[in-house]
Amino acid sequence: MVILGIDPGLAHTGWGVVETRGGECRARAYGCVTTHASDPISLRLGLIYDELTAVIRRYEPSQMAVESIYFGENVKSAIPTAQARGAAIVAGANAGLPVGEYTPMQIKQAVVGTGAADKRQVEYMVRVVLGLDHEPRPDHAADALAAAVCHANLSRTKNLGTQRRASA
User: What's the total number of domains in the chain?
Assistant: First the structure.
């Protein structure tokens, strides 16, 4: 299974492609779409859509995992982040990809083992789980890889439960 993970943001949308075989996950590629604050919102969202569409064409994922929006104390940034997230989801939907949506806490729990993990812990575990010799940069790409790993782990768990029910 090939999964495209997305860490949405208007200024920086991280993406990461993970391939799973059995219980093993490996990173195939990762990066970040960067837009400029001086550009109109339509241009910025179009760039996110176009770049992610190119990633989908190149790596042919079968599924997509997107981090949901965490409002926290900065509600003002939630709307542009939601718009970037929408552009990413439309890119996946136009390619026919099923989309899994995960909260930051769910992603941290799946990758680190605790929903209270900090950014450094997530980056470290992404490196370890994916067998990388370095921590992925920028951090938005690491977060996108974490979303893909989360999706892989939760999909595997869901599939095991389905198989157990079917054999019972």
Answer: 1
